[in-house]
Design brief:
- The chain is an alpha/beta fold and 253 residues long.
- 40% of the residues lie in helices and 19% in strands.
- It has two domains: 136 residues, 3-Layer(aba) Sandwich (Rossmann fold); 96 residues, Winged helix-like DNA-binding domain superfamily/Winged helix DNA-binding domain (Arc Repressor Mutant, subunit A).
- Strands 2-1-3-4-5 form a five-stranded parallel beta sheet, sandwiched between helices. The chain has a four-stranded antiparallel beta sheet with strand order 6-7-8-9, with no helix packed on it. Strands 10-12-11 form a three-stranded antiparallel beta sheet.
- A hairpin with a 4-residue loop joins strand 7 and strand 8.
- Helix 7 packs across helix 9.
- The protein starts with 13 loop residues before the first helix and ends with a strand.
Length: 253
């Protein structure tokens, strides 16, 4: 059982924060900081992330998390809320204040909606409730890291005879406006952001629909079919939205 922080109003020492590096270094690319006081959970998370190729650092309380962060900011943080010393909410606020792009995934025993809203307002990227599915948590961490490392795209993108305006959510093909649903547009945008990369159906569902909101992988197939019908010259023989049999799809510009 998680221990409640001894002092829920305890701020992070400003002297310690002043020594934090001002930007994340490349050496932190594959390192995840797990801030968790339950030893069993620590071991489980260490095995989970290391099996997926990440380096893992463990902090058993808020003060230890500050020290590890001061030494070298990680690529992502998995953060328990109820910690000895500095509470998780305060860590989340301060880490995001100094590193806005840092993915923070909150891992908490409470499922209270107001707590989730508060943490998201403080800048947390996701919120997973204990007991949790290791597969789900790993998927959420992967997704948060992909969003952070994803190359930015310009306001407009052109392929073949199609021009996309991401700001206006408009698509012009052969001089005519093409209407897409919101989900079709989000699917298109994600694929354009990941050109030439094979994207699994599960990844598309997680990124476009959200982990808990999709009915089946058939949803992805139907949306790719719609994009082909609207944006390919020959939908039966697609050039841009290609199928990778047994895996998923990839976009070729």
């Amino acid at each position: 059982m998680l221990r409640v922080a001894e002092n829920t109003n305890s701020p992070i020492p400003q002297a310690g924060l002043a020594k934090f590096p001002q930007r994340m270094g490349s050496a932190a690319t594959e390192r995840i900081l797990v801030v968790e006081d339950d030893r069993a959970v620590q071991k489980a998370l260490k095995r989970l992330f290391e099996a997926d190729g990440y380096n893992v650092q463990i902090a058993s309380d808020g003060n230890a998390a500050v020290e590890l962060f001061r030494a070298a900011p990680p690529a992502a943080v998995v953060l328990d809320l109820r910690l000895p010393g500095i509470p998780g909410q305060e860590l989340c606020r301060e880490f995001k204040h100094r590193f806005p792009g840092l993915p923070i995934i909150v891992l908490s025993a409470t499922s209270d909606v107001s707590d989730k809203v508060l943490l998201l307002e403080l800048g947390a990227d996701d919120y997973v409730t204990k007991p949790f599915s290791p597969r789900e948590l790993l998927a959420r961490v992967r997704a948060a890291l992909r969003r952070t490392n994803r190359p930015s795209i310009t306001d407009t993108f052109t392929f073949d005879d199609t021009c996309i305006d991401f700001t206006k959510m408009e698509i012009i093909r052969e001089g005519k406006t093409i209407a897409l649903t919101a989900q079709e547009f989000k699917t298109l945008k994600f694929m354009v952001q990941n050109p030439e990369r094979v994207i699994t159906r599960d990844e598309l569902l997680n990124e476009v629909w959200g982990y808990h909101n999709y009915p089946s992988t058939r949803t992805v197939d139907n949306h790719i079919l719609k994009l082909r019908q609207k944006l390919e010259k020959d939908p039966a023989n697609p050039v841009h939205f290609r199928t990778v049999h047994g895996v998923g799809y990839k976009f070729v510009g």
